[in-house]
Specification:
Structural class: mainly beta
Order of helices and strands: EEEEEEEEEEE
Radius of gyration: 13 Å
Shape: globular
Strand content: over 45%
Number of strands: 11
Helix content: under 10%
Largest sheet: 7 strands, mixed
Length: 120
């Protein structure tokens, strides 16, 4: 059973930066970040394949967020720059072998989430 642990969330002002980390307990899989706000569906943010060769981003974060992984550390990072109030959400790390990496149901393993709050 793969376990994921997110960290790095917090409160930041508009235009600021945060870096989220997701530490995996086991084997290397495709890993993605999703986010969710109250009353809304969990939405795709970014994904990186197991070997780091392919990344994809939601249009809303493209150019501001960067996903990367360090397999030696079994850790995936999400660098978030130029943050906006609409980025406020609980961010979840997910791992699996998705056919469509933008679909949350394609991921088998999930972390507990970390809160990101961007003040205006």
């Amino acid at each position: 059973q793969l376990q994921l642990a997110e960290s790095g969330g917090g409160l930041v002002q508009t235009g600021g930066s945060l870096r989220l980390s997701c530490a995996a307990s086991g084997r290397t899989l495709t890993m993605g970040w999703f986010r969710q706000t109250p009353g809304k569906e969990r939405e795709f943010v970014a994904v990186v394949t197991w070997n780091g060769r392919f990344t994809d981003y939601a249009d809303s974060v493209k150019g501001r967020f960067t996903i990367s992984r360090h397999n030696d550390e079994s850790t995936v990072y999400l660098q978030m720059n130029s943050l906006k109030p609409e980025d406020t959400a609980v961010y979840f790390c997910a791992a699996g072998t998705p056919t469509n990496p933008r679909v949350q149901n394609e991921y088998r393993y999930w972390g507990q989430g970390t809160q990101v709050t961007v003040s205006s």
